[in-house]
Sequence to fold (881 residues):
Amino acid sequence: MLAACHYGDGASVKDHVLVYCSEGSPETFNPQLSTSGTTFDASSRPLYNRLVAFKPGTTFLQPSLATHWEVSKDGTEYRFFLRKNVQFHANDSFTPTRPFNADDVIFSLERQWAKSHPFHRVSSLRFGYFDSMELGNLISAITKVDDHQLKITLKQADSPFLATMAMDFTSILSAEYADQLMRAGTPELIDTQPIGTGPFQLVRYQPDAFIRFKAHPDYWQGKQPLENLVYAITPDPSLRFARTLAGECDVMANPLPVHIEVAATQKNLDVIEAPGLNIAFLSMNTQKAPFNNRKVRIALNHAINKSSIIQAVYQDTARVAKNPIPPSMWSYDKSVSDYDYNPERARRLLKEAGYSDGFDLNIWTMSAQRAYNPNAKKMAELIQQDLRQVGINVNISTFEFGTFLAKTRRGDHHAALMGWISDNGDPDNFFTPLLSCSATLSGTNSAFWCNPQFSHLIHQARSTGDVLSRQKLYKKAQQLFKVESPWVPIAHSTQHVIVNPRVQNFTIYPSGGVYFKGVSLRPKIRPVDKKKPKKPESRQPSPKKLDTKRGAQSNG
Amino acid sequence: MARVLLRQLLVLLLSLVTLTIFTFSLTLFFPQDMVIIAGQTTNDFGNLVNHYWHYLNSILSGEWGQSRINGQNVLDEFLIHIPATIELSVMALLFSLCLGLPLGIIAAENKNKWQDKLVVSSTLIGYSMPIFWWGMLLVLLFSLTLGIAPVASRIGFEYDILPVTGFMLIDTLLSDQPYAIEAFYNALEHLILPTIVLGTIPLAIFTRVTRSAMIEALASDYIRTAKAKGLSYSRIIWLHALRNALIPIVTVISLQISVLITGTLITETIFAWPGVGKWLLEAVYRRDLVTLHGGLLAIAMIVIMMNIMVEIAIHFINPKLRRRK
Fold:
């Protein structure tokens, strides 16, 4: 009650601050150094721009720091024309003397690419994305034509390359700031005290507590309507929801299915949903018996009741998966028929494969809650029951997320509940890292399934620029995937965000990121008591629903 | 007096040496993770004494190793987080003392009457309350149902307060923002629920100890003498009885320090309070042994030092000890 009297004058401080309850602390403020969505939400999305951007809520590409681009006929040379008069942020120690130019792009890419670059080894973290996408082997040269023109030459044609230039790790940092830091002997500050061109700039960060941003006054698309933006770091989902319910948070990350249910009944909360570009699947290690036998893999596809998993684990906030890519992704093959839930058939197939007595199976899961899987352990238990019906005796091992990834990449597992979220909206972002032969080496192909024909198809699709022929090749690949079935595809989870109705223009991106560009707060004529958030004066129209079903990709 | 101080200093030194030997032995169990601290080469365990000496040197020079999460020096990290914990603990201590002493006195004055029975039974409930549950209950009632208290954190996010001292109540007043006073009240509001949650167990204990100490004091001869001399009632209670009852109370306060520290682990988690407790718990989740080691060392040092300070305080309060030469 103490502060009740301080809000008499109508508008309060709160009207100029949007609070986002995020799920964790970022590892760094440099998106080049991370592969985690939490870090991107706090760095690349508010603070930086890329050459190319995704159109809000879709996977279409649109110009950003590059106003336009030209691709050579053979698809190996990209010429980017850079935007003029783009201003970097200024902070206490740095004031930019020049606008953004080609040097900044070269600095940002070469830092990750060239091992001899003075900034390559500055941080203890690795360039996770740049390395795993093997851009080092793809790019042959980055040449500055003039201050606002840049040429990137590739060793071979790579059709997702433009989408790659829209991904978080290709964010553009300031070369001038880097030079200043190097001269001052503190190069590591580039990763902790970021300077970018993005819509917001960093004010203050307290690990495990909050990140405070303010609008970039000279943003090239104009100053944001949102003056202040705060990320309230709240790892506990129940607390996150309680804060949102009490009106302390305006936007809540990663709600649990139960929160969505409760929020739908609350007048002061809106639920926004959109199909996610993700998949949860049971990966079977095809290098190990019994999963080196195709019949056993198909038997498992028949034995697992996916719709009951959708109901129990996702509370119907997901849809059954049959292909390795989600239905909202272009080139998704609708015509593929799924293996139906049929324990009888599964038993028969197992018998044919020589496992009439069943076998013992160890399924690995992770303890963390992910966007594609709210409760991996529960999912594993349901699978355990289903498989018991066909005589397979399942033992579940749960690991902490980091350990889980490290161990599955080594191929120590028999079967594991895995998942994937697309970062750039290109189907290649599912096929190559998850199912190609080369990915068996890096371990992201968790089924360790190497089918030369399949790999050839996706390689072909990758190196052609024509969308229609890519589509055909990907459909063939999906059919082949279904025949060979290295996974049991389980679910494509729908993304949900809970927002306060005072938040305007909030859009979910298919890649799952949180963006506050263009978001504003509806000013509110405040009654005397600010503490009853449950009675807003007027209601927003019903939750916005996003349609990304058309989600096709433009290719420059 | 000098002898007492000297003896306590010796106890302090011995305890710290024992503590560092214990924490040093931890570094031997996890040589890979802790190599920075002990300054040891992983497979060379030959000369333990030598290792220990290196270890002590790095601890004394503030080299507590680097957090595996953000690469910061653990000691610096600890110093960033401790003010929030101190602020909360001091408030909880004040809350439990300011409420516990009067309640205990009231109960003692009315021994076996209904006031006494009420106090005794409610302290029993308070004492046996699982504070995690208690915290949730308060949040559910005051924040989510009645909407009169904030759910979590130290201050509303709309206030941008520069951390100067790390103590939110002081920093809000130092702030040059136009809303500094408003922010101060907001920070106070945020302190209420965590203070109650953290202070509940100490409150119950202080009340009970005060009650029994006062009952004993009130039954003693010198009180009867004072009464016979016709001294005023409040003079008897506050000056004569309480003064003597203070000794066991102060002793109990020293015991409550470790209870408070354990309590902050839970309270800070419930209220997303960015203090040492939450910091350490995060470190556990991330298997950050360097941070855990540093946190353990620092907290143990604080507890040891507080206990010794209380020992010295008791010498000042207790005339029997004070006059003994």
